[in-house]
Amino acid sequence: MQAGRRVGLSRGSRRAGAAMALPFLPGVSRDRNVGKEKFHKSQHWGFCNNVSMLVDENKPGVGGKPLPGQKLTPKHSVFPEGMGSDAPAWVAFDKQVLSFDAYFDEEVPDKNQELYRIRHCKIYFYLEDDTIQVIEPRVKNSGIPQGTIVRRHRIPLPPPHEDQFYTIDHFNINTEVTFYARKYKITDCDQFTKNFLRKMGVRLNPPTSRPDDPYTLERQKILDSMTPFRPYERIDTLKQFLEHDGHVLRFFCVWDDPESMFHDPRELVLHYYLSDDTIDIKEIVPVNSGRDAVPLFLRRDKLPKHAPMGLYQPGTITDRTVLNVLGNLVGNKSRYILDNRKAGAVHQEFYKDSDLKIGAVINVWGRKIILCDCDEFTKEYYRTKYGIEDFTPVPYKAPPLPKPEKTFPPYTGFGSEEDSLCSCMGLILKPPAKDFKKFLEKDRIGMESNILRFLAKLITDSPIDKDRKLIISYFLSDDTISVFEHVQQNSGIHGGKFLERGRIKKPGQELFKSEPSEYFKAQDLFVGARVCFYGHNFLLVDADEYTLNYMEKHANEFSVADVGVILKKLKVITEPRSREIRQLFAATDPDHNKVIEYDAFRNLIVSITGEAFSDHEIMTLGRYYGVKDECEMDLHYLLAVAQEQLKKNRFENFEQVTAVLQYNDREKCGVLPHEVCRTICKSFKLPLADDDLQALLTMFEDDNKQVEYKKFLVGLNWRENPIHAFQTVKNEDDWTRQPPIFRVKEIKYLPLLDDLFGKEE
């Protein structure tokens, strides 16, 4: 039983056994003792809440006051809390580093050549977190591991203050700092560091010189006195490559080939690469010249000046010359040295950038090439480096031959002229191209028809044809014209289509000719114009409101609708008779109302100018200076247009709109305010323009400006109460099937006279 009993050891016996199990290591025991000393130094037994426990030595006494002999570690830096910017240090001092030049001595006990070594280094102090980094610049062939000596971190002060760290106050010029038992002597710092320390109130010491390493100086003297016996010569072209990589000078050249059959000049482009002084040449082969297109006329390489007279065998020209000193005398072993004198070297000259300029002749392997011009980069390069300002190009191209005029055979009469002309443009037949841009811009868009309509009558002696009324429609999208005849009761003539839609040629042109024919344009049609369509003469007597508005809106295209042009033309005619014309207008207005009738105004203009003005120009003046009457739009026409729009968009929610309107009619009187009806119609997305909706609501208002919404919806209901467009035509004067045109009745003549002759004193 005793053999199976567990043997217990006291705490002291376990500690002694653990000590006996460890071998004797001086370093370990020393570290352990140091750790115990630090442990006992930093902690002690105390009471917390009447409980005995191990507490930190930094814990203050009652009331936060330090105990006798206690040194508290500062919680903040040397600056009191609250001074300076409120931004944290890692933001305020981001990427700000203090740089100090320093050195330290290092003993060399194992070498007779040097007893100590001076090593130069850089000390970087990072302001954002008070970290320090020590870096030693690398020296070629030093044999010492160089680079980062102390990695970046916070470095504690040397004992006995190892619980504190280095701050900015510990650094100054001509002082020593100790990092991990190694002393660094600070000799100088950069300008940013000096300015920063002065702003912090630090008085800077004068800088000192850095001592040189004696062994390094001795080695440098030996290296300077030595001449390498082995074949070694440094040829460095890296600097030129780094400075001018991608920089190319471009010249436009010409070569007059004497052996060419036709002695025509050959156009070339020369590229000079500044990175390695090489040249390549490319030929510009014209189209259909009969020559094969090759990638390069001269591949990229250095171009010798005296080629081919200076052509050498391969291996003759080398970068270095090597001499065999001993030959094969000593044990068949050779000894080579570099020929610094280059006695047997072959010197060959190559073209440089200084040899190239406009007008120069260069030798390209026996071919004389003239430099005629260069690009802007090349001009700027020579202007900056050599101060050249004259870059007059050398003319080398013969004046271009006159281009023969392309003639076309006359029109044969088969098909359209445009289609026949396309067959003469190429072997592959293509249909004539259409102006799709114009078609998209001038095609019908919503209420914009882009169709000019004129009322016309036939110019004839036949009493039957004199009273015939025709509508000429000009389509701006494709410049086509169609003619329809208005139906007149008991006339004996069937109305309808008079002329199929199409482009119409102007009369008096030869049929079979090479030049394209002229067609009627929009500018040829205006009120008072006489046109001839396939032998039928028409007089345009009127135009609809849309046509007049369109021509006035695009007055730059239609001179007959441009008020400015008409006034200039009228001023030239009437200026000599200004007083007489004022008396004529005043005589026409006996009541001194400052307005006259339009017919009287027209008769005055015709009597003054004769036939110099067309009816359209007189109408433009009348519309510009006329009295604008407030006219009422035809209700039936507006309802017809609105029903057509609703029908196209398939809007049939009339019952729901009625229910909402009745719900908002709290007094059940059948009327609602104008704005309430408009808002409800917009909420149902009624497919009507806002102007049309406003006009319709206005027409259904009563005397109190309240809209009778039931009548309004009954008029819009195209299912139950359809209104067709022809129902708006009430008499023969409504020839355009549009709302009645309210012509100008009265003209204000005083503004017209003021614009012509100035205001009368």
From TrEMBL:
Keyword ATP-binding assigned: no
Subcellular location: Cytoplasm, Cytoskeleton, Flagellum axoneme
Record-linked Gene3D superfamilies: 2.30.29.170, EF-hand (1.10.238.10)
Main location (coarse class): cytoplasm
Segment forming the signal sequence: none
Domain of life per record: Eukaryota
Cellular component GO terms held in the UniProt record: microtubule
Keywords: Cell projection, Cilium, Cytoplasm, Cytoskeleton, Flagellum, Repeat
PROSITE patterns attached to this UniProt entry: DM10 (PS51336), EF_HAND_2 (PS50222)
Official protein name in the record: EF-hand domain-containing family member C2
Organism ancestry: Eukaryota, Metazoa, Chordata, Craniata, Vertebrata
Gene from which the chain derives: LOC101868891
